[in-house]
Design a protein that fits this description.
The chain has about 80 residues and is of the alpha+beta class. It has a single domain (about 1-70), classed as Herpes Virus-1. Helices cover about 15% and strands about 10% of the residues. The protein has 2 helices and 3 strands. It has helices at about 35-40, 60-65, and strands at about 20-25, 30, 50-55. The chain is elongated and about 40 Å long. It comes from Phreatobacter aquaticus. It holds the Pfam family DUF1272. This is DUF1272 domain-containing protein.
C-alpha cells in the first residue's frame, strides 16, 4: 500500500493525500509536480525512475488506511537555491 508521503522531498511543499500535484516513482520517492517537471525533468533523482502522478486514495479509505505523517527532505543538487 502506498505511504502517501506528506511533502515534496526537494522543496518540502505540503502534498496532502488528495493532492493532484504529488508525483512518485516506484520506490515512492515523492515530489511536487513543479520539482518533478522543472528540476528533475520527470526522472527521480534518487533512482532514475519515471515520476508519475500519485493516485488519490478515496477519503473513506483514508480513515482506515491513513496517509503517512513522516516528512522526508533530501539534499539534491537541483534543489539548492
Amino acid at each position: 500500500m502506498l505511504a502517501l508521503r506528506p511533502n515534496c522531498e526537494c522543496c518540502d511543499r505540503d502534498l496532502p493525500p488528495e493532492s493532484r500535484d504529488a508525483m512518485i516513482c516506484t520506490f515512492e520517492c515523492t515530489f511536487c509536480r513543479d520539482c518533478a517537471e522543472t528540476r528533475f525533468e520527470g526522472a527521480c533523482p534518487n533512482c532514475g525512475g519515471e515520476l508519475v502522478r500519485r493516485p488519490i486514495r478515496p477519503a473513506a479509505k483514508l480513515e482506515r488506511f491513513p496517509a503517512s505523517t513522516e516528512r522526508k527532505v533530501k539534499t539534491h543538487a537541483a534543489c539548492a537555491g
